Amino acid sequence: MTAGGFPDHFSSRASSYATYRPTYPHRLFEWIGERCVAHDTAWDCATGSGQAALGLAHLFRHVIATDASASQVEHAKHAPNVEYRVAPAEASGLPDRSVDCVTVAQALHWLELPRFYAEVRRVARPGAVVAVWMYNLMRVDAAVDQVIDRLYHEVVGPWWPGNRGLVDTEYRDLDFPFPTLDPPPFEMAGEWDLVHLAGYLRTWSAVTRCAAATGRDPIAEVEPDLRAAWGPPDRIRPIHWPLSVRAGRL
């Protein structure tokens, strides 16, 4: 926990998060922007290292990106029109009716939803768009996927916080109290070698929690099987993550 009671699962590896986490497709941000009434100010909440904030920066005059973790904000990637602030999602410090768009990327399941939704209603202008999205397990091929699934469910399964269940159900069971918009399918894609894959897996919150609680290295436990499934470590392989998007209008 941080000083405000925020369950901070990522600060200890903020630099790795900035380096190894995948980026979101440009088409997703275009779709969001096309549905916004105005493009003056966007709020990217729980921004982490700023992946979504940078995507919004191409579409909005000003992007305010907040995160409860000072370490995450310190390692965030900058753009001239992106302003980073340390603030919890439920108390952003933004003025009333000041933003045209609110986004939360891969983080809504960490927030206190009733308080966050109240904050969205306070800071959003009439007609503003709110869009949240998540991705679950990466897919490579049957052999690699089997190792990833074992890591997720068996090796570090007990160390996922309870609210991770919203990710497992791909936000289908999410309380989302806004008039809904119907997004098309979106997918993230990347091309990584085995070093990048291992770096990404070490950013999982359950991997960090398991290592801290047990002294074990969960990635080292699956590394032999992962190497056997991957092939040469420097082999570049395509990776895919389907995105689950919920969107609505204020």
Give a written overview of the molecule:
- With 250 residues, this protein is an alpha/beta fold.
- The chain has a single domain, classed as Vaccinia Virus protein VP39 (Rossmann fold, 3-Layer(aba) Sandwich).
- The chain has ten helices and eight strands.
- The protein has helices at residues 14-20, 26-34, 51-56, 70-74, 113-123, 142-155, 165-168, 194-201, 205-214, 218-230, and strands at residues 41-45, 62-67, 82-86, 99-105, 124-135, 180-181, 186-192, 237-249.
- The protein is globular, with a radius of gyration of 18 Å.
- The model is unreliable at 1-12 (pLDDT under 50).
Strand and helix layout:
Elements: H1 14-20, H2 26-34, E1 41-45, H3 51-56, E2 62-67, H4 70-74, E3 82-86, E4 99-105, H5 113-123, E5 124-135, H6 142-155, H7 165-168, E6 180-181, E7 186-192, H8 194-201, H9 205-214, H10 218-230, E8 237-249
Helix pairs in contact: 1-8, 6-10
Return the CATH architecture: 3-Layer(aba) Sandwich
Q: Can you tell me the overall shape?
A: globular
User: Any low-confidence stretches, pLDDT <50, length ≥5?
Assistant: 1-12
CATH superfamily: Vaccinia Virus protein VP39
Largest sheet: 8 strands, mixed
> How big is the Rg?
18 Å
Strands, count: 8
Proportion of β residues? 15-25%
Number of domains: 1
Which whole number gives the mean pLDDT?
A: 92
The CATH first-level class comes to Alpha Beta
Ends apart, CA distance between termini? 32 Å
- Provide the structure class: alpha/beta
Order of helices and strands: HHEHEHEEHEHHEEHHHE
Helix content: 25-40%
CATH topology: Rossmann fold
Total of DSSP H or I helical runs spanning 4+ residues: 10
